[in-house]
Design brief:
Layout lengths: L5 H13 L2 H4 L5 H9 L3 H14 L2 E2 L5 E2 L4 H8 L4
Antiparallel strand pairs: 1-2
Helix pairs in contact: 1-4, 3-4
Length: 82
Amino acid sequence: MRLLSSARVLDVVVELDAERAGAVAGFGTTARLLAGVLNLSKGEAKARAEQAGLLAPRQSLTGETLPPALPTTATELAAGVI
């Protein structure tokens, strides 16, 4: 069994959030979806969703791609340093 890196897990969470998968699946939010599907506590699920939001590229209101809110941390996580 292959495990996903922390960076890849956060990428998946970002994708789920962008697609509004939590709402589509009837959970309401991405954090609730994570809690229900992965059997996480509400706090852990919320933390993962928040981390994904801080470490992934963002979009401005005009559609421009912006760097992550924590760019250095995101780079080091992707490189496997942390």
